[in-house]
Input
Amino acid sequence: MLKQRVITASILVLALLAAIMWLPAAGFDALVFLVFAAGAWEWTTLSGVSNRFARVAYVAFVVATGLLLSLFAHQLIKVVLISAVVWWLQAFLLICQYPRPNPLMDKPASLLMVGFPALVPCLLALTSLEQLPGDRRFYIVWFIALVASADIGAYFAGKAFGKTRLAAAVSPNKTWEGFCGGLLATSAVAVAGMQLPQAAHLSGVNIFALIVAAIALAALSVVGDLFESLLKRQRNLKDSGNLLPGHGGVMDRLDSITAALPFYVLLLNYAVAP
Output
């Protein structure tokens, strides 16, 4: 299993870097929509929807909504991203309340609705990066490094020091010690990224604000991970799908991204100098 996991991860990383570096903006956006269409399909599984027509209709609706917003609503980008961040704060409360009953989590229809603030703002966030001053490729790679460092830092700190469970009812393997390790790793990557020439448009951001933003981003990535774990636990699922050998489904890789990316792009919209 570990060997398969490493092989799949290596292929994904190489494919992603190739897409970021060499695909034109339109091609990269098309790839993003394809990935999120797969994520929306798996979200119907997490929501408990089995009717194939309903699942296809949901995927089409999510993709169409994201496409319309990306084409015609760039002036609303901050409103959409702020709404997404507010939703993920609500998701944090749902995680804290679990396993107490909650009407929002009981019915497939309500969980499908939840998928919109989880998925659509990410589509808009990624496609909007082309509108910002600076190098879109740098913004994407930096974000991936930040989220990956939160995950890697949490893993190794949890292995070495983990004793106190973070959210035992949702994900028993996560610990507060691992969480803190993830925050430290993300802060380090944030500071390192600011030293690169491609970050020149962010020169007005002071180091304290940068670290606070990195900590908040890492915390949101954990919320996204935990919320998907909550949905899988409710459906008694190990993974959201089986598209990625050794890793599960697309949503198993997007869970942290869906929560952290809207916040990241929102900050860029305020911080990047024109």
User: Anything to note?
Assistant: The chain has one domain: 2-271. The longest helix spans residues 207-235.
